[in-house]
Design brief:
- The structure is a homotrimer.
- Chain A is built from ten helices and nine strands.
- With about 325 residues, chain A is an alpha/beta fold.
- Chain A has two domains: about 140 residues, Aspartate/ornithine carbamoyltransferase (Rossmann fold); about 150 residues, 3-Layer(aba) Sandwich (Rossmann fold), CATH 3.40.50.1370.
- In chain A, the strands form two sheets. Chain A has a five-stranded parallel sheet, with helices on one face. The first copy, chain A, has a four-stranded parallel sheet with strand order 2-1-3-4, with helices on both faces.
- In chain A, helix 1 crosses helix 10.
- The longest helix of chain A has 21 residues.
Chain lengths: ~325, ~325, ~325
């Protein structure tokens, strides 16, 4: 847990309710999934599950009333930004939206450390989306308020990885023993890299289904191999779908192919249709980080195993949990 | 009322207060003015009037506390967006603003149905502005949360039509027997088309004053004629202003004219000045959907009959009413 | 106090709590620092100090619950916009953000008076940032709701001037007898002009340190000279830093120089480093309106005398005070 930095309590920073200042998450930054112990993960998911039940029962509540979230997005991501906004507002807190950074002083040359040190004068917690790897860790070093990484380029997007795992747990229970099949662009997909690393903590089997040029990077397969994870590689989903508890689909982008006709050749092979789903188990989930283009045909949406829209909702609960935790209120 | 679709109650969708779940508006979409019965209209305006009185008395209240509105604008409309935001916030609810759609995933090819199905994971009601006719009806088919149409291209803008009629009622009382004169661009003005259709439900006389090339479309005059509405057509406001209870002015856009000099010739004829108002009744209202350019001279603004800024305020009350109604709280 | 215009109480405008409607600030516009008497300033700073203590103790409170602020920005200013948003939300109020004015009807030719008259239908107070001098005074003439000037081009930015002075008071106490040194671009810096004028009300000494072509304008030095302020002019900070209670640094912009090599020659002379600070008093403050580029080296940030990030926080308290005052609640 070396990446978790305890924040100094400073004058001007205050936690009026104070009920859970003893929590190991209070005042911590959320920068990487690597920072969490197994117990941390279990605790986050417990709180997220409580959030789900509270929302189902009463919709919203005032746990973070009077708290302010600065939603600092250096690149647009409507989905992530909206999810954090909804999470904060369902907990009774308020949001300072900072989306137009290209038009503002932060694009006139002000450094990221200066920007977050200014924002911490206003906000109790800062959610940061930035195109450069390491931006969140950098920001975290300069502010006494908690930073939550909402994606830093090719770096990490820890709340996405957490919501993916939370989705699996909520839908299927304990991940131990599950077979998870990842489909599509496994080379460039930050999402599947982080999820694979998180799943490696459990006794899972991972199947990788992709075109040859979009295989899971060897750095990751080697890392997971050392941890004892069973991994298999395939060109064709048909071979493994029948054994899969989870099928996680990502988009194969045309731009990844030098020769457009190569794209045309392979892309169809990774499209999920009702026909595909007929080979799948009765109890399994089909996931996708969204937005989708055509990797999953819309005819599949009504299949109860299609979990990708529920995934969005689980994301809100995970973010509610993290906000409450770092603000000492969960 | 065929366009009103009852939403299925799903797990994850919840109405904690539940006082008015028996309301015919609860969980309904607001897509078109055609969906409302006369009783529906009367009910909406009663609630909007109550909202007006509540705001006058206490400014804001917590009827929708804990509810979230996703304000999804695919094209900018500061006025409409601000009005819905104010309406939600005056009722104690919160807003997820989604204005930068051109920069976000929704512009990277994600379909409207996918976007609203994602947003319904976060929000309790979705307000949608979209450049394409039918967008709101499409969105409504795909989400279980209520959709409110905030304008869909050349289609409808039902809350504008409702606020126009509500303005007339609040300012002058029962519309029965009123003479309403519409001035300016009657050919392309979505606003006057919708208002004319709404007014046709009452025993009104409609005067149309416009340049020859911007007449009210025959499709509408024929439809209203069949309903027994008395309609007259004029080039000149002077003929009818003295008999008008309502003068509704719209902008004549230069771009509508092939020959710019034709524009210069006619545009002046439709400008309202203090001189114009001297011919008007003492008890009447001058309306405009705003923004205005020069169709009404600013010297008229202080005339108590100039109702166009009050119109904005009535719009907030109508939107407060609709939000409360579809969320089962009015 | 001629610039303070009392707003007429109109139907539809309401102050539910009403505790301090007798305040001289209730329903006033905040357009210029010139509008304030010395007593006004003392009162504002008392309230701002109370805000600081309340935030330190409980973070946020519901003084402005149910109140709506329209944050109308015709040009981007993330820092100022976020500060007002935070101020309103920490007081329990809500914000209508209107940032994308270039995309909206306000850029389609609608006049500023029409825009604010529309917005006052929704909001209780309007914060206005506009590139043209006099915009706030113009807006104030047309609306019955209070306007707060958040910068009007080369005109004024009164809340910046107030927060600068408030910073000095909170950090050092009574300004009487202080020596304040202004460094950098004193010719074009709206910030230092306003602050100099405000400080002239106290018995202060002002040192101006700048390149020759960026001297404090004679119009200002003459005005302050008549008020009896001791003013000195320098090329070099070294001469005066040892006597300064406040060093206020502004950015020297390359674009101000006809010959870029002139810029290179002088710019280094106005950079504050730890070495510079060694000549400064033990009890003094180093200020900067931010964003900084390289006028203050980041090694200085940890110096307890470096007050520029605390300045941001003081800005929030001043804006909380002004919002509460004009809404009759302080």
């Amino acid at each position: 847990m070396t990446m978790i930095q305890e924040k100094k309590e400073t004058e001007g920073t205050r936690m009026p309710f104070g009920d859970r200042r003893d929590s190991p998450f209070y005042r911590r930054d959320i920068v990487s999934v690597l920072q969490f112990s197994d117990d941390d993960l279990a605790y986050i998911f417990d709180v997220a599950h409580e959030m789900r039940e509270m929302v189902a029962r009463i919709g919203a509540f005032d746990l973070l009333k009077g708290k302010l979230l600065a939603n600092l997005f250096y690149e647009p991501s409507t989905r992530t930004s909206s999810s954090f906004t909804a999470a904060m507002e369902r907990l009774g807190g308020s949001v300072i939206p900072i989306n137009e950074v290209t038009y503002s002083s932060v694009s006139k040359g002000e450094s990221l450390p200066d920007t977050v040190r200014s924002l911490e004068a206003y906000a109790d917690v800062i959610v940061l989306r930035h195109p450069e790897q390491g931006a969140s860790a950098l920001a975290a070093r300069y502010t006494t308020k908690p930073i939550i990484n909402a994606g830093d380029g090719v770096g990490e997007h820890p709340t996405q990885a957490l919501l993916d795992l939370f989705t699996i747990i909520e839908e299927l229970g304990d991940p131990q023993g599950l077979t998870v099949t990842m489909v599509g662009d496994l080379k460039y997909g930050r999402t599947v890299h982080s999820l694979a690393r998180l799943l490696a903590r459990y006794d899972v089997t991972l199947n990788y289904v992709s075109p040859d040029i979009l295989r899971m990077p060897e750095s990751i397969t080697a890392e997971l191999g050392e941890m004892g994870v069973v991994q298999t590689v395939h060109d064709d989903l048909g071979r493994v779908i029948g054994d899969s508890d989870v099928v996680y689909v990502t988009r194969v982008q045309k731009e990844r192919f030098e020769n457009p006709s190569d794209y045309e050749t392979v892309s169809g092979a990774y499209v999920i249709t009702p026909e595909t789903m007929r080979s799948a188990k009765e109890r399994m989930v089909l996931m996708h980080p969204l937005p989708r283009v055509n990797e999953i045909s819309i005819e599949v949406d009504d299949d109860p195993r299609a979990a990708y829209f529920r995934q969005m909702e689980y994301g809100m609960y995970v973010r509610m949990a993290l906000l409450a935790l770092v603000l000492g209120k969960a």
